[in-house]
Task: structure prediction
Amino acid sequence: MPFDEPAVTIHQNQAVFPECLYFKAMRLPLLLLSTILMITSERLTAQFDRNEATDLIESFLIEFPEGSEIAVALVQGDSTLHLGCAKQGSDINNVDNRHAQFEIGSLTKVFTASLLAQLALQGEVAFDDPINKWLDYTALHGDRITLHHLANHTSGLPRLPNNLFGGDADPLNPYKDYNERDLQSFLESDWQLLSEPGLNHGYSNLGVGLLGTILAKASGESFDMLMQENIFDPLDMGASPMDRSKATSMLVQGLSAMGTPTSIWDFDALAGAGAIHSSTADMVNFLQWQMRESDGIVESLLEAPFALNSRVSAGRGWLMVQGQAGRQILCHNGATMGYSSSISMDREADLGVIILSNISAFHPRMGQMEALCFNLLKLLIDQ
Result:
């Protein structure tokens, strides 16, 4: 089962698994609800319109099945405002879900790219290393595809390997049994590049999953341990496992588009593409690090961007959108069978928004999450 397909507005013509939409000033329809969302911090400035934020979130969630839940964090420097709500019957009720865990899907790709930047700055790998330098076999085209190509989706690799659903693969948990032997089998086969590496942008879960596997090989550690030691532990992200067996009772049940429970997704060789579970409390730590990091890691993620159109470019991990008044907005989305997520930030202004949910990527209105994320960021910018 594929995930995180780019939005029609930015990349391709498949909107069911969106990435970031343009930075828009549009408002979602507001519904007259008597709902109260829990505000778990009082530290944002008084000018911020919490009621408008509440209305935006309510009007978004009301369209989804019973049991749908959304956790939102609005970040302004050191201040964070947590909003949480869940749909119960026809009502939307306040919940304190800042510590609840959700699959974050392809937000994982920003973490994987950040690991690449860390290892590159430490001299352990280089962005222009060909992938065959780090594989113990010879991948077809592997002397022409670099780690940079994997990180910004210009490798020419397909979105998914053609052997993902082979054998006894579970279509409801498709990545679980795809191991390094399967990955090697695909890369050594007679597969065709979709385009010359570096020439075109083609969103590839395979590419970033392969990047995670290569970083583990280069470091001599498992990808899980590499992420733990370099990002989760330093940022005190204790609720962000990559292995669902380490998830806690705080893991929110994922839902299908019809509102029925879905399988949690497990990952093996392609973990770098989407394996992380997290909470908004943990994601705030990550977002604040990305906004303020000064050792060159984030700057290197934004180097050599690939222009998708006049307003949107693909960096390493992040998408870069030229917003209002020349502002640069960094964003990414995630979507799996039972969860969807979105993150955006204005790094210069020290502002950001995180949204995690148990809303299925297959729900026809799931694409509105990008608009919600950008509209909430606009509220922070306009205060």
